[in-house]
Amino acid sequence: MTHEAGDHPLRSDELALIDRYWRAANYISVGQIYLLDNPLLREPLQPGHVKPRLLGHWGTTPGLNFIYAHLNRVIARRDLDMIYICGPGHGGPGMVANTWLEGSYSEIYPDVPLSEEGLRRLFRQFSFPGGVPSHAAPETPGSIHEGGELGYALMHAFGAAFDNPELTVACVIGDGEAETGALAASWHSNKFLNPVHDGAVLPILHLNGYKIANPTVMGRMADEDLERLFLGLGWEPHFVSGEDPATMHRQMAATLDSVVTRIHTIQDSARDNRDALNMPRWPMIVLRSPKGWTGPKEVDGKKVEGFWRSHQVPVANARADASHRELLEDWMRSYRPQELFDADGRPHADLLTLAPTGQRRMGLNPHANGGLLKRELKLPDYKTLAVGVPAPGAPVAEATRVMGKYLAEVIRLNADARNFRLMGPDETASNRLDAVFEVTDRVWMQDIEPFDTNLAADGRVMEILSEHLCQGWLEGYLLTGRHGFFSCYEAFIHIVDSMFNQHAKWLKVSRELGWRKPIASLNYLLTSHVWRQDHNGFSHQDPGFVDLVANKKADIVRIYLPPDANCLLWVTDHCLRTYDRINVIVAGKQPSAQWLDMAAAARHCDVGIGAWDWAGTVAGDEEPDIVMACAGDVPTLETLAAVDLLRLALPRLKVRVVNVVDLMTLQSEYQHPHGLSDEHFDALFTTDKPVVFAYHGYPYLIHRLAYQRRNHANLHVHGFQEEGTTTTPFDMAVLNSIDRFHLALAALKWLPDTGADGAALEANLNARLAAHTAYVREHGEDMPGIREWNWTHGR
Amino acid sequence: MTHEAGDHPLRSDELALIDRYWRAANYISVGQIYLLDNPLLREPLQPGHVKPRLLGHWGTTPGLNFIYAHLNRVIARRDLDMIYICGPGHGGPGMVANTWLEGSYSEIYPDVPLSEEGLRRLFRQFSFPGGVPSHAAPETPGSIHEGGELGYALMHAFGAAFDNPELTVACVIGDGEAETGALAASWHSNKFLNPVHDGAVLPILHLNGYKIANPTVMGRMADEDLERLFLGLGWEPHFVSGEDPATMHRQMAATLDSVVTRIHTIQDSARDNRDALNMPRWPMIVLRSPKGWTGPKEVDGKKVEGFWRSHQVPVANARADASHRELLEDWMRSYRPQELFDADGRPHADLLTLAPTGQRRMGLNPHANGGLLKRELKLPDYKTLAVGVPAPGAPVAEATRVMGKYLAEVIRLNADARNFRLMGPDETASNRLDAVFEVTDRVWMQDIEPFDTNLAADGRVMEILSEHLCQGWLEGYLLTGRHGFFSCYEAFIHIVDSMFNQHAKWLKVSRELGWRKPIASLNYLLTSHVWRQDHNGFSHQDPGFVDLVANKKADIVRIYLPPDANCLLWVTDHCLRTYDRINVIVAGKQPSAQWLDMAAAARHCDVGIGAWDWAGTVAGDEEPDIVMACAGDVPTLETLAAVDLLRLALPRLKVRVVNVVDLMTLQSEYQHPHGLSDEHFDALFTTDKPVVFAYHGYPYLIHRLAYQRRNHANLHVHGFQEEGTTTTPFDMAVLNSIDRFHLALAALKWLPDTGADGAALEANLNARLAAHTAYVREHGEDMPGIREWNWTHGR
Question: Which of A32, A180, A299, A534 to mutate to test the interface with B (most CBs of B within 10 A)?
Fold first, then answer.
């Protein structure tokens, strides 16, 4: 629907004020892109006033400023708690301009005060070495959203709104971003927002019609189709469309009044009648305004305003070319700076009456600096959930099922605080975390049938078949000061590789800014992993996400491969206590042997790596003939079994078993804070003995982490070799040479001389491999006992 | 709209035949999931007839079979050229069942004939070690689409339809997949399909209501909202909904008749009136049918049919539990196998009259084995486009701009064949490939304004701001036998990491199947790379995609880092001649020094690595004191400049410069077909001298590739250290210690003794670094001349 200006008339003084505020933001935006000096145009523009490198994006900015000014008006008038998510990241100048105007910028960065000198610095620093980036970024006050890679604005907005009932998240989505997959899926987030306990998201789809060099798909769609599309998606679209400023101000003000009222009506109605929850039809705004609005209509005879040529820097040669410089000066003066700033270069006092004050200013809203609001989770005593391990290998347990009990306790203990959520792409039960459904449900706002299970309008588990949404919702939730976990099939976490990258970059920069307070870590459980994709096959087998993770700044990332349930408990508990990190846990869900009792698991995980004397044939400092190392649950089992085979056949062989939980211990202490000292590493891995290392993922990662170690030349890593199919668990190990037989064969290969016993063992191992292969091809299942570990029988 | 059965009445014999065909496919699907033996149920089921591991997915399968049977009817009746894309990959049993029924399976796999023994083998091999996967996969006849990771069905369908005017691609999309971002964006593909030159895509959105353990978002949407949604997206939705087979058959037949007629009307109209092209409203089908349709209604008292419990194996314990086995047997007999198969176990002859014959069978349609149809590209003589290089470093050129001229020629030469497309997320011009617009346009089916540039209904360039769509369209295009290139900002290619993974897996498996013919390689140009993101910043700086690529099977992947325009020309030409590979080219778009004339570039690139004697101070086999190696355009410039600094300060120093174009040469010849022999490697890198290696990306990759080399311990790699921001190009290099000063300092560090001259140089280098930093912070641009290379001046 379109609101006629007459619906909610804007008084003429309000109209004048809002237009003046908008002009001020536009002026400051252009100034950032262009000027080194002469910020108030007190003298005619000289070449030296113009930056030598013009780097910035004008096209989207006036629309963003228009929205910001109008949001200010409704915030101030209704005392709203609101943040602004700026999807068009190229609108960095607009976000900076507005937060400076409202005063929040100078409160955070006192060296950029509200004065002519402040304005000069503000202009100069933009897209300038040592200055601020051209996108909305961690440096930008009021932002929880990096404006670099597009697609994630709306999911971040929803993440921020969950469990923040008083918050309204205004989310501007550019028509470029609207073409991405992540954004296209995000519209369905309305099916997961509970009007009683969550806040509101107000999407503002900003159609300025063009991307870098093309029209946009939605920009060229008819209003009728857009209306049907968004109605179909469950929204109530409101259109604001045009280019005449006065008309547009009236339309936008009326529309905002109307949609905010509608939001409050929905919330009041839901909160008064808590049982009758139907999915509300939330309002949204479709804003059509020209790209590069109020900028030069034409440059060098070519169309600029309302076209893609206004995307970046419309007047490209303003330093060297006098006519371009004149065009720029005319453009800037068209905003009438004399009406905007006082003699000291401060915004006129009456101008500021438009904006809210204090923490209602969007640049200082604490939700956008979530660490300020973060409360520690109440965590259960994980030891009470430990699996009893009377002897290594004796009990069998499903590691993630035990973890699920822990997470259920976390949910129970923090139910009142409503600050923890569990995300998963329809895999929470498949990943065996279903204990959580004893204490909570999956959020579901559409109809619920009588036979449905564990669905409710209110719940702590969020499931949708979109890894993007799971990741994006969680990011928004964490960035606004809450906690969470994302469980995912290991192979498909690659779907969000790029989102992981961007979040890691956000954390890296945030940590360099004193005013950004630490937020809870982003925790991943990767399960249904490469070695146990029995129901699926090659497409579901990829352990390479951690390779990507290891590229990121050492301060930010951690990778854990707990070998059993008690280690997984310790690691889960540990990760939930950390902040400003990305923790990746890889653990299996299938029944498997347990190795360490809780006390031993805690000691082992606390160091992150250690020799398991009970599994080898040497103790303490005694020098082994060979080190058999392992990381990951399946590699650990196979390594221990290989040692068993070696021990029985070569009774005098001295074997040390080393298990790695924290992969970063393998790097040197200079590369990573968890890196072992060289002394410690050498003590475990020796300086000259062969090391056969069974690793969960692609073997290169181990080489890459450990290449600086003294004994690296003797390190022989077995891992996933991209040989996968639908087969038995043991056969998967065999196909990739990570099974006990291949590991024992590798030991024989690298040991100096194992004599006749070695030769006999080699023949035996090869025969057993052949027998295995014949058996599984015949019977379709693993040979009985072939996946067991026999140490105790051998004793 | 919903078609009443009366619209196009199905005769009762047609109804009976189609139902019988459907029952046959369902029977064969269940048999694959469950049976080892007794395929025709000639005797009561015994435990030994049931597989020990029940791995497969029933839920989606009956719906897929229903669609397949009905498509067979319209193909046969109208002699359609049609392929079937099975989005719900879990429907593997259905695809196998149908291709066996129609006879195409046995033609490809003669060891699985149309007989009782063939049926036994068909059942046994499914999800069985050494058998076939549980998803649609390369092994599945008629498939171009792996059914593992969800999201890409519709983009593959469009890729297949482009430039195939006689083809209709039926694309089944599950309601699980419909929640993914990639699929959500795909609906807009209709804005890029030209009814004159392209074929048709018929999406069939299959709403069976449930995922693994949850309802689906679209399954719970009201028909009214679905209708609005798809109308808004530009489609014409037709609904088929219910569970009574006879009614559903009538509805589906009438609907298919209607939509096929509609498709032909659109095509005829467009092809008769070529100038009046408006975007047509193509038909699509929304099919609502119960999950696990015709399977057990309940098992152990719990709802199964029409619920998520039918997702996998509805009767879980049929081997061990007699009551479960009885349930299974009743279920299978409910399809009345005696009416489906003759005494030899062949499908009854009259049953087969429903299916088309020969290559009209969807299992044997050659479009689904694209290598059969692939024609070689006509390629221009790249030498005619070479940049003249009178002396190394003398000319300046933009490498990708030169490549653009080459691609324009490729497009011109193959214009009539219509078998080459260029994909990019709105970045073709930004990436300076705009020469292509001299010979073609961007495809655009929505309205075109008079001031728009290079848009047309017919064009070879496809741009949408979705890396997913660029990748998916191209995959579909290649898999059906055509050629293409995807140019992308380097950082954002991570958005399709997971799609790359899946395509690499598809190629790996396809190459193991004799009947799948080679398809053209998937070629990436990654540009606007980490070192020259002047307009953006940290969010746009990530060179890690190649790390992911290097994890894949060596046979499949290649990574090229051409140092200049002529090398890029050679590499581009080379990549377009290859097949069944994924080629990644990383090259800059900014003006930069050129090093090799065309002949030298060809020699250098052909080997992929080589010493540049002209850039060092030793020639041929003379042993250097140090090797300065480089890979990538910016690292090459900085390395050559560092050598210049060293040479001037330390005139007796012997330096060899090694440049790497083909990154895989660094691996050993045992690891990769392009790997250098150890002798060759040692001859270049020495066995004991320091090597300072300036690499374009994350330095670990070089260590990982070269860790087995003799001189690895002396290899010191400089690369991206995740230090990025909006700054000058040279400052980016300095922040990551990959600039000439840091490289020369590294050489001094690792050289044994450079005496007083070395100390003086060190002081000089540090001073110049400090001067640089002060200058850029003051002036916002690089010091004049600081990015030049001065060798010729020094001579």
Answer: A180
